[in-house]
Write a structure and sequence with these properties.
It catalyses: pyruvate + phosphate + ATP = phosphoenolpyruvate + AMP + diphosphate + H(+). It comes from Hyphococcus flavus. By secondary structure, the protein is of the alpha/beta class. It contains 34 helices and 34 strands. 45% of the residues lie in helices and 17% in strands. The strands form 7 sheets. Strands 15-25-24-17-18-19-20-16 form an 8-stranded mixed sheet. The two termini are 29 Å apart. The structure holds phosphoenolpyruvate and magnesium ion.
Length: 890
């Protein structure tokens, strides 16, 4: 940064120094304000202090870079000139708003100050200038309240209490009933509170006010709320926020003024009609805060919701007409659905913000598909418009339409989805209970940014107050949590132990079910049904499938999971964990018998019991997957998961195997390992006890033959050996696998292709992949174990301390969720290169959990693997992520 660095970018009056492409420097809000100003839209003039200033501020012990003050002062006087006012001037005082604006939108997480520049002197100037004393004093008291809270960090309850008491004393219900005189008295009271709490009077120097607010906004980049939000949304701390200082326009200037928020399409359903809310004679945050219930934007919405209060279309037709023109211009310009903030000051429309609107997954799909059909975007762009993570919302159940219901409450359908859980009334408790594994529904009067952790922990959210754009609604939609808000009949008792609705009581801890798509709350747990994935979803998926290179398979063992996967578009099975086929009660005894057998003979007896079960399992799997590849992994049981623990379990095995219980107990004790994840598992078991894998290979091949005879279609089993570290392990086992496979084919007098390959899940295997590929016809990267062994980080134990690593920035992501490109990724790349060198046509896939994580899928595309394999419900996510990875490949 040099002395001449430009720290401040102005906008307004039909031009701007920045534009929409400068989001990194100006933040989202600043860049879009500049863009709107250049488009000739009515934007109050202002300037943006860059995110670089934020970085300098934190790098230099909260000091600002040289030259900033002069640039701010120059920009401020330019703003004053544009509007014909002057900052601090007694007769024509320029007032400004000071707002945060990071690169990625973080709604409500950082600080905002409005009406800045008001003092005991300038407020009189504003009163004269506007000819409306009530408005001027209302603005001043708002400013004192907001500034005291945000900048001076005083206790806001004292201010709220004073106002409530004042209103009660005069039998007022709404703020709008307060007169100018009333506000003057409240202001005197407010200033007294400030002086008592602060030990000095409320600052009367506008310059001091301005820098206090700028400090507070930059400071709020690292407040707890913002830190939590960033962590949840993977926003790097290094990005910093910009600060926007903008001339105030007033929505609280009487009945011809208003403030509102709007979306150019419905953010919940994606329907192509304008959607929003507004409040007459109100300012900025009133709409979002959910304190007064706002009115609808359009006549259509008012009628649909059965509201009496007129819509904006009816109450302010001229301003509405202007707004509609702006909607069209912005949507065509940005080619995406916009989320807009506006103010009407004495009938004139002003634009305060636009950004690509947050939306539900359902809306995202519909908007992408519609915009493509409208010719606004291309198919491949539409594919890239939907966040694969968000599909999760659609892949989850909704309420069973035939299930009986006992409705407790109705409210607004703020965020779709269905969820059941215990009622809790505060966010800390919601978080604590969720950590204990309980499903909770957070019920609040309204939510604020302080509730973010509770909302995240909860399965669903219900609020008594607030509209569709209230904090609860916006945040819940972003998180994909079902939410019902503005449930006016909901009365939460002060004790926070129960709520009532028309006399009906629901206690804390009672189970309720919420339906966010309908805006309803039911008593008890209502059964749910799986979603139908047709319409927009199916259409977008076809476009995604056209665009992707990689195949998508699923990890599945049961015919049910395999069917779900196939219905979701899986193109085969990438991992069938055979040990998971043994968890059922009748099978686990036989498996325990096999593990605990003292001799080969004992083991063979146990295996003979297992063989028919395995064969029939494989037959079912092959039948569901006819025509598609199925990778079956030979047994890989971490022993501790299978050893009998209780006397009762030992007794069961003793009975079934006619072995002595005490002997079995001793043997189980002997087999106990200190470190089972690195113990006698995977192919090591096959090396020690060849008969186990021999039985499995026989079952696989007999099943394949049976299905070929039954359907006439070829089945190509891919037999996979787990946890290989050395070529020799695989070589040894491969001889036996081939022997059994060929003899089964001979017995059946059939010809059938099969492949033998290995998991790559140990660093040594990756590093010696060229040798291993001499034996292996395919590799499947087991990145769960590869992550565990590369980091030396236990899959089972790390959850207790990983959060410390994340909080302190050692890990930005959990490496078991998102693949670590630098370390684990490097090993994958080495193995790909070495594997292909030995065997150019080697088949390569990934079957660790990362196979269903969109960020990891991006890496897998870059690494050039042939397919990803993930859990059945993630199949559509993987299909979309694979398409985006290909389309956006760097
Ligand atoms: C792996 O290690 O990534 C893998 C898929 O195998 P498992 O999770 O069964 O150990
Ligand atoms: Mg593994």
């Amino acid at each position: 940064m040099s002395e001449n660095t430009k720290w401040v970018y102005g906008f307004g009056g039909g031009s701007a120094e920045g534009d929409a492409s400068m989001k990194n420097l100006l933040g989202g809000k600043g860049a879009n304000l500049a863009e709107m100003a250049s488009l000739g839209l009515p934007v109050p003039p202002g300037f943006t202090i860059t995110t670089d200033v934020c970085s300098e501020f934190y790098a230099n012990d909260r000091k600002y870079p040289e030259g900033l003050k002069a640039q701010v002062s120059e920009a401020l006087s330019k703003v004053g000139k544009t509007v014909g006012m002057d900052f601090g001037d007694k007769s024509k005082p320029l007032l400004v708003s000071v707002r945060s604006g990071a690169r990625a939108s973080m709604p409500g997480m950082m600080d905002t100050v409005l009406n800045l520049g008001l003092t005991d002197e300038t407020v009189d100037g504003l009163a004269k200038l506007s000819g409306d004393a009530r408005f001027a004093y209302d603005s001043y008291r708002r400013f004192i309240q907001m500034y005291s809270d945000v900048v001076l960090e005083l206790d806001h309850h004292a201010f709220e209490e004073l106002l409530e008491t004042y209103k009660e004393g005069r039998d007022y219900f709404l703020d709008t009933e307060m007169t100018a005189d009333d506000w003057v008295k409240v202001i005197a009271g407010y200033k007294k509170i400030v002086e008592e709490q602060l030990g000095r009077p409320f600052p009367q120097d506008p310059e001091e006010q301005l820098w206090g607010a700028i400090d507070a906004v930059f400071g709020s980049w690292r407040n707890d709320r913002a830190n939590t939000y960033r962590r949840l949304h993977h926003i790097p701390e290094s990005w910093g926020t910009a600060v926007n200082v903008q001339a105030m326009v007033f929505g609280n200037m009487g009945e011809t003024s208003a403030t509102g928020v709007a979306f150019t399409r419905d953010p919940s359903t994606g329907d192509n009609h304008y959607y929003g809310e507004f409040l007459i004679n109100a300012q900025g945050e009133d709409v979002v805060a959910g304190i007064r219930t706002p009115q609808t934007l359009t006549k259509r919405a008012r009628e649909a919701q059965g509201e009496d209060e007129p819509s904006m279309e009816e109450a302010m037709p001229d301003a509405y007409g202007e707004l509609v023109k702006v909607f069209e211009k912005l949507e065509n310009h940005y080619r995406d659905m916009q989320d807009i903030e506006f103010t009407i000051q004495d009938k004139k429309l002003w634009m305060l913000q636009t950004r690509n609107g947050k939306r539900t997954a359902k809306a995202a799909l519909k908007i992408a598909v519609d915009m493509c059909k409208e010719g606004l975007i291309k198919e491949n762009e539409a594919v890239c418009r939907v966040d694969p993570h968000s599909l999760d919302q659609l892949l989850h159940p909704s309420l069973d339409p035939d299930a009986p219901r006992d409705q407790v409450l109705t409210g607004l359908p703020a965020s779709p989805g269905a969820a059941s859980g215990e009622v809790v009334f505060n966010s800390d408790e919601a978080e604590r209970l969720a950590q204990e594994g309980k499903a909770v529904i957070l019920v609040r009067v309204e939510t604020s940014p302080e509730d973010i952790h509770g909302m995240h922990a909860a399965k669903g959210i219900v609020t008594a107050r607030g509209g569709m754009t209230s904090h609860a609604a916006v945040v819940a939609r972003g998180m994909g949590r079902p939410c019902v808000c503005g449930a006016g009949d909901l009365k939460i008792d002060k004790s926070e132990t129960f709520f009532t609705v028309a006399g009906r009581k629901v206690q804390k801890g009672d189970t309720v079910t919420i339906d966010g798509a309908e805006g309803r709350v039911y008593a008890g747990a209502v059964p749910t049904v799986q979603p139908e994935l047709s319409g927009d979803f199916a259409e977008l998926m076809t476009w995604a499938d056209k665009a992707r290179r990689m195949r998508v398979r699923a990890n599945a063992e049961t015919p049910h999971d395999a069917q779900v996967a196939r219905d979701f578009g899986a193109e085969g099975i990438g991992l069938c964990r055979t040990e998971h086929m043994f968890f059922e009660a009748d099978r686990i005894i036989a498996v325990r018998e096999m593990i605990l057998a003292e001799s080969k003979k004992g083991r063979e007896e146990a295996l003979a019991k297992i063989l028919p079960m395995q064969r029939s399992d494989f037959e079912k799997l092959f039948r569901v997957m006819t025509g598609l590849p199925v990778t079956i992994r030979l047994l890989d049981p971490p022993l501790h998961e299978f050893l009998p623990h209780s006397d009762e379990e030992i007794e069961e095995v003793a009975k079934s195997s006619s072995m002595d219980a005490q002997l079995l107990k001793d043997r189980a004790h002997k087999l106990k390992e200190f470190n089972p994840m690195l113990g006698h598992r995977g192919c090591r078991l096959g090396v020690s006890y060849p008969e186990i894998y021999e039985m499995q290979v026989r079952a696989i091949m007999e099943a394949a033959c049976a299905i070929k005879k039954e359907t006439g279609e070829d089945v190509t089993p891919e037999i996979m050996v787990p946890l290989v570290a050395k070529r020799e392990e695989l070589a040894l086992l491969k001889v036996r696998i081939d022997e059994i496979a060929l003899s089964v084919l001979k017995e059946n007098n059939l010809k059938l292709d099969y492949l033998i390959g290995t998991m790559i899940e140990l660093p040594r295997a990756a590093l010696t992949a060229d040798f291993i590929a001499e034996e292996a016809e395919f590799f499947s990267f087991g990145t769960n174990d590869l992550t565990q062994t590369t980091f030396g980080l236990s899959r089972d134990d790390s959850a207790s301390f990983l959060p410390d690593y994340m909080r302190q920035g050692v890990f930005e992501r959990d490496p078991f969720v998102t693949l670590d490109r630098e370390g684990v990724g490097a090993l994958v790349k080495i193995a790909v290169e070495k594997g292909r060198k030995t065997r150019p046509d080697i088949k390569l896939g990934i079957c660790g959990e990362h196979g269903g994580d969109p960020d990891s899928i991006r890496f897998v595309e870059d690494a050039g693997l042939d397919y990803v394999s993930c859990s059945p419900y993630r199949t559509p996510i993987a299909r979309l992520a694979a398409a985006q990875s290909k389309l956006q490949q760097s």
